[in-house]
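Structure ticket #2291
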Amino acid sequence: MEEGKIATESEQVDVMSSEAQGRLKIGAPVAIVDIGSNSVRLVAYEGLSRSPTPIFNEKALCGLGRGVLATGLLPEDGILKAIEALKRFRVLCDIMDIDDVEVIATAAVRDAKNGKKFLTECSEIMRTEAQLISGKREAELSALGVAYGIHRPDGLVADLGGGSLELIAVKETGLGRGVTLPIGVISLQDRSGGNLKKAQKIIRSELHDLPQLKAAKGRAIYAIGGTWRALARLHMKQRGYPLHVMHNYVIPVRDAKDFASLVERVSTDTIDSIEAVSAARRPLIAYGALVLEELIKKCAPLDIVISALGVREGLLFERLSKSQLNQDPLIRAARDLNVLRSRSPEHCEELVAWTDRFISSTQFDETPDEKRLRHAACLLADIGWRAHPDYRGEQSLNIIANASFIGVDHPGRIFIALAVAYRHMGLGDDEISPRLRELATSRMLDRARILGGALRVAYLLTAAMPGVLKRTPMRCTKETLDIMIPKELTPLASDRVFNRLKSLARIIGRTPRLVIEN
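Resolution: structure written out below.
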């Protein structure tokens, strides 16, 4: 091209790769279409992965379950809305070049006399056989979503849909026996004729003497379903909660009970921040609150934990190999983002081993859970490098705090986000929201600052390139904090490196030293 000549659009395309660089090479994308009693939803995922990432997510509120208990039939208007949504979803899957599409239907279609006919039409539209899943299988799939989406879960999975409630115990990856009950929010509204007191009696009757409820006593209830997510969103808004991540959001049981009682008592439209909930879902919120309140009374759980993962992710997880399921989903997600956004993914992997040796030398008591969080922070330490230097810390903090990670609770997110933010911003707290810091314990804040200080030293030594950290270990003695520098790398021992080492040494109570090895 001649000097000073601007490239044409076609010439620019020739220079650049037409393949998206922001996507992982983990195989073909997959999609799941979930035909529920209240909504019909399409979720497309980047591929089969231990840490599944949605690339497209859309729902249509069709109300297929409305009136089924009274008439035995799916409503005509609901069918028309669902068919229209499915036609759109099929075209979207074609546009996204997704051949692997799984279609499932749950309670409303199970219970309706015309469900089989409707399912046949769904299969024709989607060009794949739509599966009608039983209540027991629905409970098991929901539990799989929790078992592999939340770090070491222990309690009762409760999946509240429009037509049914599924209950099943989970302890880590072990599942109990599931049960399905006809007390979804639409079913309750229909059965009670819109009377909340009558709905409460129905719920109490259905929950009476269920063995599954014993699984939650003194443990957690893992709440799944759009109505409970809407309740949690309202709770977040009213608290002024600093994160907008629904997965693993914890509501203390007393707070959950009081909040559910408030939602039942007052008109939905008068609730503060109700605009956060779609108008179509607002009439159903009180029924979801009733079910939650009765579960709390029956179970005496420790906490209510919101799970954004359920049946759809359960379907994905059961397709993974044993070796894939054994992966840590947080570390897998951190490694994926490292590959996509770091200057040198290998350097971030080296940070893991480098900080392992450093932490070991400090004699700090580090639990296995703290270690995995530190490893994740190392893998994510360079994801903000493309931003302007003044904003790298803020951008990294926001990406990590709000990322679609699974297998990590909110305090853990904040630890990782703060460690990387300190790496960019320095070890003070002036630029970091105090509301965010409140989500972590004092111990986590201290460890995040120490790790951030270590990362600051490492990046100044290496320019984010691999091969240097192995030759420049950092270690503690009882009195000193040393960086060992081989003779051939002596010019790296600059005042800037020493000043960062001094900042780190100050917060761990050591004297800094740059040691040149012969």
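Closing remark: Residues 10-16 have pLDDT under 50 and may be disordered.
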